[in-house]
Amino acid sequence: MNSSILKTASNYLLPILLLFSVFLLLRGHYHPGGGFVGGLIASIAFVLHGFTHGTDATLRLLRIHPGVLIPVGLGLAALSMFAPVLTGQPVMTGLWIEEPLPVIGLIGSALFFDLGVYLVVIGVVLTILFTISQYSE
Amino acid sequence: MTDNTLIFPVLTHLFTAIVSLFFWQKTVSQRIISIVGSAVAMGLSIELFVKVWTGGILTLQAAGWDAPFGISFVADVFSCSMVLLTSFSGFAVSLYSATGIARARMLYGYFPIFHFLLMGLNGAFLTGDIFNLYVWFEVIIIASFVLMTLGGRKAQIEGSVKYMAMNILASAFFLTGIGILYGITGTLNMADLSLKISALENRKLVDITAIFFVIGFGIKSAVFPLYFWLPSSYHTPPSAVAAVFGGLLTKVGIYALFRVFTLIFIPDNFLSTLLVALAIFTILTGTFGAVIKNNIRRVFSYLIVCHIGFMVGGLGMYSEIALTGALFYLFHDILVKTNSFLIAGLIRKLRGTMNMEKLGGLYAEYPLLSLLIAIVFFSLVGIPPLSGFWPKIYLFEAGFMDRHYVLIGAIIVGSFATLYVIANLWAQVFWKNPPETPGDSPLTDDFKPMTRFRKALLVAPIAFLAAITLYVGLGAENITLVVQHIAREMKDPSPYIEAVLSKNIPQ
């Protein structure tokens, strides 16, 4: 797309949208938000970048193929699900640290599950959209 | 008793799938991971079965939320024998896939999806929550849809459109049923539902709700009149995939029927008559289809429909003997149907076609292999003392006791038709001399030039399943023990309900 306004804007929007997606991810435990929505916002950021700079430029920016994120995210989610088994509790039980960390707050295994979902969503959405856009080019 | 081990078969397949995703495009590693993962899952399933058989029902409240509110996983003897049979079939198919699936399909992620499918199957067998059952059904549908279209030939796409359309329809009915059920009882836990439904006064409303489940599960397990998607889709994917579909996918529907109609909706006169009538029509339509078809896999597809009728009929009669017979048939059917499709795939490798008219002379060329296949086919027909014979005795006994003569007639017709079809198949494929002019496409033997290792990988799973089938037939008394135990548990679900609802959470 040859709109220089959009092109310039997308450079600034990319980090802001990514930051917003992380905010949504962390907010998700008690409020609307979470890994799925966060992942969608993050992938929108990259899709917007891809629209204006071309898919290849976005892939270069990402360094890894987004498909790699799918097994990484799935593995992270599955491990956080499995972790309580090691401590003898029923599967999927939330494990929490005792003291809240500064800035981030109380962290539990649920965060890693959400993080896994976040990565899977980015991986799936970008793989699908980039495959389509590369075919159509 | 709360125990994490009951979820391990599900987790094993999940982790196997994830690990093989990391080896995307590396087909050799994926094959090894898949076989190892299936073997581990088989070991864990055996351990689970032994644990439940000796120690009683195991439950797991996911995340530690108490029973009627959280999601329960329950392993009673029925669930864990289904998990055990799934793991046998899964292991055999994963072994067979190592050479039976084209490399191009593996590159598109055959193995991860295959394990997601097995994960869904195990989850469906182990869950004790009806909405969670629906979620596992969705996992199964999505995975099976990918497996069915993988490769993208025109026939495959056509088959999977029918498959997908019917299964989505079934899910819609199932989900509507769950919605109504939740509306009238306010719970989704199956044990809790069992108590609340039996206390409900408005029986007509309960019957109507039950109809939704009959239709939903009926479509999934290919019961008359909505069975036609099965024969028109199961012959299109590669044989290893068709084996899982034929052996396990329709049986999940049957499992759900058994679970829901022995725990939640106890069949009254109306439901019982409905199920028996459906069973009769299912047997007859399956029979007629099987008799006229010429392609081996289409014949087997119709036989699936026919034999689904036996099990639904057993459920419809709803006496302890009838349930015993139906469950025994279910166990036998999972092993034999999986194996039949694997054999169909092997025949295709041997001759390059599955059209019975073009085949012939296999016995002269491969006598030992034919003998192995004969064991499977004789079990399928039910020649005593092989495994298909015993359940029919129970079904007949139950039928005579409750005067279901039409159903008995249908089962006899179905059995003889199976005999005729298999005898015809045997005569055409194994005994008949190969036709002089094989037509426009010359027959090709892909099997002969293979290395011994690859040949073994194709034949070993068939031999493995045949050995288990032989055990089911010859050791029928042990199977009967298990099956009678399950039938008793079905007639009196109070131990199941007690196990789920007792507050037994480790601190």
UniProtKB/TrEMBL annotation, chain A:
<dbReference type="InterPro" id="IPR007182">
    <property type="entry name" value="MnhB"/>
</dbReference>
<keyword id="KW-0812">Transmembrane</keyword>
<comment type="similarity">
    <text>Belongs to the CPA3 antiporters (TC 2.A.63) subunit B family.</text>
</comment>
<feature type="transmembrane region" description="Helical">
    <location>
        <begin position="106"/>
        <end position="132"/>
    </location>
</feature>
<protein>
    <submittedName>
        <fullName>Na(+)/H(+) antiporter subunit B</fullName>
    </submittedName>
</protein>
<feature type="transmembrane region" description="Helical">
    <location>
        <begin position="36"/>
        <end position="55"/>
    </location>
</feature>
<feature type="transmembrane region" description="Helical">
    <location>
        <begin position="67"/>
        <end position="86"/>
    </location>
</feature>
<keyword id="KW-0472">Membrane</keyword>
<feature type="domain" description="Na+/H+ antiporter MnhB subunit-related protein">
    <location>
        <begin position="5"/>
        <end position="127"/>
    </location>
</feature>
<keyword id="KW-1003">Cell membrane</keyword>
<feature type="transmembrane region" description="Helical">
    <location>
        <begin position="12"/>
        <end position="30"/>
    </location>
</feature>
<dbReference type="InterPro" id="IPR050622">
    <property type="entry name" value="CPA3_antiporter_subunitB"/>
</dbReference>
<keyword id="KW-1133">Transmembrane helix</keyword>
<dbReference type="Pfam" id="PF04039">
    <property type="entry name" value="MnhB"/>
</dbReference>
Automatic annotation (TrEMBL), chain B:
<feature type="transmembrane region" description="Helical">
    <location>
        <begin position="70"/>
        <end position="95"/>
    </location>
</feature>
<protein>
    <submittedName>
        <fullName>Cation:proton antiporter</fullName>
    </submittedName>
</protein>
<comment type="similarity">
    <text>Belongs to the CPA3 antiporters (TC 2.A.63) subunit D family.</text>
</comment>
<dbReference type="InterPro" id="IPR050586">
    <property type="entry name" value="CPA3_Na-H_Antiporter_D"/>
</dbReference>
<feature type="transmembrane region" description="Helical">
    <location>
        <begin position="406"/>
        <end position="427"/>
    </location>
</feature>
<dbReference type="InterPro" id="IPR001750">
    <property type="entry name" value="ND/Mrp_TM"/>
</dbReference>
<feature type="transmembrane region" description="Helical">
    <location>
        <begin position="327"/>
        <end position="347"/>
    </location>
</feature>
<feature type="transmembrane region" description="Helical">
    <location>
        <begin position="107"/>
        <end position="127"/>
    </location>
</feature>
<feature type="transmembrane region" description="Helical">
    <location>
        <begin position="240"/>
        <end position="258"/>
    </location>
</feature>
<keyword id="KW-0812">Transmembrane</keyword>
<feature type="transmembrane region" description="Helical">
    <location>
        <begin position="163"/>
        <end position="185"/>
    </location>
</feature>
<feature type="transmembrane region" description="Helical">
    <location>
        <begin position="368"/>
        <end position="386"/>
    </location>
</feature>
<dbReference type="Pfam" id="PF00361">
    <property type="entry name" value="Proton_antipo_M"/>
</dbReference>
<feature type="transmembrane region" description="Helical">
    <location>
        <begin position="299"/>
        <end position="321"/>
    </location>
</feature>
<feature type="transmembrane region" description="Helical">
    <location>
        <begin position="31"/>
        <end position="50"/>
    </location>
</feature>
<keyword id="KW-1003">Cell membrane</keyword>
<feature type="transmembrane region" description="Helical">
    <location>
        <begin position="6"/>
        <end position="24"/>
    </location>
</feature>
<keyword id="KW-0472">Membrane</keyword>
<dbReference type="InterPro" id="IPR003918">
    <property type="entry name" value="NADH_UbQ_OxRdtase"/>
</dbReference>
<feature type="transmembrane region" description="Helical">
    <location>
        <begin position="456"/>
        <end position="474"/>
    </location>
</feature>
<feature type="transmembrane region" description="Helical">
    <location>
        <begin position="270"/>
        <end position="292"/>
    </location>
</feature>
<keyword id="KW-1133">Transmembrane helix</keyword>
